[in-house]
Design goal:
heterodimer, A: 87 residues, alpha+beta, B: 420 residues, alpha/beta, 2 domains, eight-stranded mixed β-sheet, 18 strands, 30% helix, globular
């Protein structure tokens, strides 16, 4: 069982977490084209190796950033998603 | 260029037995790569090898190379649970998967290679009145689309799989199920090797241990690949690399609507015949069949962590195994023999992507997710058509990458109740 660190609850079992989406996407507006919506909704980098993703801790319901390696499953860091917005 | 090959038959076997087994030709040739081909197929799994075979067979294009970074059929072709079926909901999907199943039905003869297709039938078991209603909907859709399907009652399910847990206090009581009699299993390695042998015989160069590192771009077109063995040029390049499609797409400069996940499978120790059909439970998400060696081959849903590690995680193993033991309590006595995982290419609507890529000269066959093995003959046939003719076959047209922009998705996750 792998442990993932929730920024709010600390280390917890992997079964309490769920992958949300790749980080860094910007939601479109009413004037966005079909291509822009498709890119936002469906298309992604799906990188092999270093990833930066939004995950959710199902137990506390908070979304957060998780940086990890999709090849080794090594987890580098997790942090609060709001801090990301302030950058 | 036709390469010599031994014709496989009982007579050849008998003759070689008498002559000391010295007359067998290699199953496929292993030539050095040429500097240029008419077409290159990246990926030496079932889909890639079938593509090369049909390029040579259907379109008279034998000057083709298949480039594989590892060994033939060492990816998902060698890691799946060998089930073939066409129990899908939408007409587009049925046209695609039943085309594959019909090609499978004639494949041993076509390839002169026994793929050990065993159409032992498959039952998808429903555990509530509501699942029975959805099952009836699926059966109706399949029948309207011209595919054999039958709605089984509780008694029929118990008759076809008597070892199933039919106790009245079962956590997942049996209400009935969807039966497809033409579904079954085939020998996965034999499918890859049979296509490789057929393609090599027709002149295709199969190049193993050769990794594609980049593409050659000229005037905005893909004109070949840069490999670990040097540059190889071709006017048409086809990608059939399943879970690694996004990695190669990134090198070609575009993204795909794909997320890669690990899908696990397991086999038990071999036992005497106990299950002569394929069983999938809608409740537990676990599916199981018995191999010719007697091992129970089973699997379930995806590991929920996007991954390129070709291994699975314990929580999902526990879920799949507990599902199996719930369905077949007697299997709880068995020991697990092996467990492994393959990296599958999951698409939001659980339907494949077949079509031209955003880079001219590069064609896609990916997004099969957890169900690529059953579609190998069709995937190869349709990608070969695209690469040879330059436009869609009518069966592959709905599966074009453009459906994500137009919104015309073929959502089989909702349609046929895929568990993941």
């Amino acid at each position: 069982m792998q442990l993932i660190s929730c920024p709010f609850c600390g280390l917890r079992d992997e079964t309490e977490f769920r992958f949300g989406a790749e980080a860094g996407k910007r939601r479109g507006t009413a004037s966005s084209s079909a291509e822009e919506w498709a890119n936002y909704l469906y298309f992604q980098g799906n990188p092999k190796g270093q990833t930066r993703e939004i995950w959710v801790h199902l137990a506390c319901g908070e979304f957060f950033m998780l940086e990890r390696d999709s090849m080794t499953h090594e987890i580098h860091q997790s942090y609060c998603i709001r801090k990301e917005d302030q950058k | 260029m036709i390469r010599r090959r031994s014709h496989y038959s009982a007579f050849t076997l008998f003759k070689e037995g008498l002559l000391g087994q010295v007359g067998w030709q290699p199953t496929w040739a292993s030539p050095e790569p040429k500097p240029a081909y008419d077409a290159i197929v990246v990926g030496g799994g079932g889909h890639g090898l079938a593509t090369a075979y049909y390029l040579a067979k259907n379109h008279g294009l034998p000057n083709v190379a298949v480039i594989e970074k590892g060994w033939l059929g060492g990816g998902n072709t060698g890691r799946n649970t060998t089930v073939v079926r066409s129990n899908y909901f939408y007409p587009e999907s049925v046209a695609l998967y039943d085309f594959a199943l019909r090609l499978y039905e004639g494949l041993s003869r076509e390839l002169n290679y026994n793929i050990m297709l065993s159409q032992r039938g498959m039952v998808v078991v429903a555990h509530s009145e509501f699942e029975m209603e959805i099952s009836a909907r699926l059966v109706n859709a399949m029948q309207i689309n011209g595919v054999d399907a039958e709605l089984f009652s509780r008694e029929q399910v118990i008759e076809i799989a008597p070892a199933m847990n039919a106790r009245p206090d079962a956590r997942y009581p049996i209400f009935g199920g969807v039966w497809q009699s033409r579904a079954g299993v085939a020998r996965h390695d034999a499918v890859a090797w049979g296509y490789a042998r057929g393609a090599s015989h027709l002149g295709v160069d199969i190049i193993q241990n050769c990794e594609v590192l980049d593409f050659i771009f000229e005037a905005g077109r893909c004109c070949g690949v840069v490999t670990s063995l040097g540059e190889i040029r071709a006017g048409r390049v086809g990608l059939a690399v399943a879970g690694h499609s996004s990695v190669l797409a990134a090198k070609a400069g575009f993204q795909l609507p794909i997320q890669s996940y690990a899908l696990q499978a397991m086999v038990s120790e071999p036992v005497k015949p106990v299950l002569d059909t394929v069983v999938l439970s809608l409740g537990t998400g676990t599916y199981v069949s018995q191999s010719d060696k007697g091992e129970l081959v089973f699997g379930g849903g995806l590991d929920r962590i996007p991954s390129y590690a070709q291994r699975g995680n314990p929580p999902l193993q526990e879920q799949v195994i507990s599902g199996l033991v719930e369905m077949f309590p007697a299997f709880g006595q068995l020991k697990l023999l092996r467990q492994w995982a393959g990296i599958v290419d999951i698409v939001p609507d659980s339907s494949p992507i077949i079509g031209p890529s955003p880079l001219p000269g590069l064609y896609l066959n990916c997004g099969w997710g957890t169900g690529g093995f059953k579609a190998i003959p069709a995937g190869g046939w349709l990608l070969a058509h695209l690469m040879a003719i330059g436009s869609h076959h009518e069966i592959s047209r709905p599966f074009d990458l453009g459906r994500f922009t137009s919104g015309r998705l073929i959502d089989e996750a909702a349609g046929s109740g895929i568990a993941h």
